[in-house]
Amino acid sequence: MKHSKCIGLIIAICLLGFWGCQPTSSHDTYSYTLASQMLPDQNQFGAYWYQGKAELTSYELEQARYGEVHSGHAVLIFVTEDFSASKQVKLDFPQQAGSDAVKILKCNFTKKFLTGIYPYSLMSSTFSPIDLTQNPHALKVATSAQEWCGHTYLQINGGKNTYEIQGNSYFESEGDEQFSLDKTWLEDEIWNYIRISPEALPTGNFRMIPSTFFTRLRHVPLKEEKAKATLAAAAENDELMEYQITYPGLNRTLSVQFQKAFPYIIEGWAETSSGRGRELTTRATRKKTIQSAYWSQNGANDRDMRAKLDL
Q1: Rounded distance, CA 77 to CA 306, Å?
Q2: DSSP assignment string, 162-231
């Protein structure tokens, strides 16, 4: 009887979130944290994230593009919101939404840089449930890119077992498209994972859908790829952690460094890949971090706030 209860408990844990019990293929051998360890300390988390402000962090950016590295800046904006699980949009009246309301952490990720005479402007928004035990994957990702040749838009909506994807592009090879992918890890969601529960990041060998920035800029199909990831103390600073993802089939590596202590502020990242016959690295280094209700600071006099971010 005790043996049966033990087996039942193990099965229950697997279903709740120990994804290591259910590898996506016989070649995937990765580690994933138990569901009970994925929840952040609510008092600590709430004291930082539930005070009616967003966290804004600016970065010095060196962006690889067209076989060269171009200077620019990036901003990561993290904020908690009430989100509609069914409509997958921010709720206007969350108190009326009942069980449809989901507490999420949103990451708005922007990049701006010049390539010769013309500018690039990129933005992605990723919406992740704070309670990862209920849904370990982002509910939605939306990414756009604008430059003087044209612009593109890509949206990923999470279903029960699939991602529903809509893409619109100025470029013929992409055009207008709608398709589905089986649910798996998204590179875009790791930024939120770092801020919610970094110990729950997947490590080892598994499948991951690469960054929508990467696939849009390279004009390559959005699909899952073989990936290998590690999480360890940063070699040059024992107060930082480093999460590294390598895609053997893409000859691409992404390393993200973040503070070991809560609230796990992201210090920077490096992305190395090959293009136009050269291997180049995109780098970002943190400049300033502030907390602000920026959506209410939209007057002409508020422009001085940008100086606090060194923008």
Answers
A1: 14
A2: EEEEEEEESSTTT-EEEEEEE--EEGGGHHHHHHH-GGGS-EEEEEEEPPHHHHHHHT-----EEEEEEE
State how far the Cα of 108 lies from the Cα of 81, in Å rounded to an integer: 12
The answer to whether 298 and 305 have CB atoms below 8 angstroms apart is no
Q: Three-class SS of residue 7? A: helix
Q: Is the entire prediction scored with pTM above 0.85? A: yes
Of 156, 182, 181, residue with least CA distance to 167: 156
DSSP conformational letter for 115:
E
DSSP letter at 45 equals H
**In the chain, % of residues over pLDDT 70:** 87
Mean pLDDT of 162-172: 94
Determine how many CB atoms are found less than 10 A away from the CB of residue 227. Answer: 26
In sequence order, which residues have a C-beta less than 8 Å from that of residue 213 and are 6 or more positions away?
Answer: 109, 111, 122, 124, 143, 145
Could you report how far apart the first and last alpha carbons of the chain are, in Å? 65
CA-to-CA distance for 130 and 153, rounded, in angstroms?
26
- How far apart are alpha carbons 43 and 45 in whole angstroms? 6
Quote the strand ranges of the chain, DSSP E. Answer: 29-31, 54-65, 68-84, 101-115, 118-129, 140-147, 150-158, 162-169, 176-182, 185-186, 203-209, 225-234, 237-247, 252-259, 266-275, 278-292
AA identity, residue 269:
W
> What is the C-alpha to C-alpha distance for residues 191 and 143, in angstroms, rounded to an integer?
15
Report the range of poorest mean pLDDT among 197-201, 268-272, 287-291: 197-201
Using pLDDT thresholds of 50, 70 and 90, give the confidence band for residue 246.
very high
- Can you tell me whether residue 289 is helix, strand or coil? strand
Burial class (CB in 10 A: 0-12, 13-18, 19+), 210: buried
pLDDT-derived band at 274 (thresholds 50, 70, 90) equals: confident
